[in-house]
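User: I'm putting together notes for a lab meeting next week and I want to include a structural view of one of the chains we've been expressing. I don't have a solved structure, so I'd like a prediction I can at least talk through. The sequence is below, exactly as it appears in our construct file.
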Amino acid sequence: VPVEDRKSEHLCLSVSDLDAFIAHLEKSGVPYWDWPGKLRSVTLRADGVRQIYLKDPEDNWIEINTAKH
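Assistant: Thanks for the context. Below is the predicted structure for the 69-residue chain, given as structure tokens.
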């Protein structure tokens, strides 16, 4: 199964400052995507949570979001 088709299987982490996290990714040259797959984009969910997705070195998806738990 192509990696793109496995995005629903992912590790999810929450951060308090997504903009600072994204700035670090961009400074480090790490690509990230929104849920539909647009490079360097952020998804805004219906519940107000912002999220991005990136891949680990083994091509597993990792979600980073602003959800408060």
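A couple of points you could mention at the meeting. Strands lie at 10-14, 43-44, 50-55, 61-65. The radius of gyration is 12 Å.

User: Perfect, that's what I needed.
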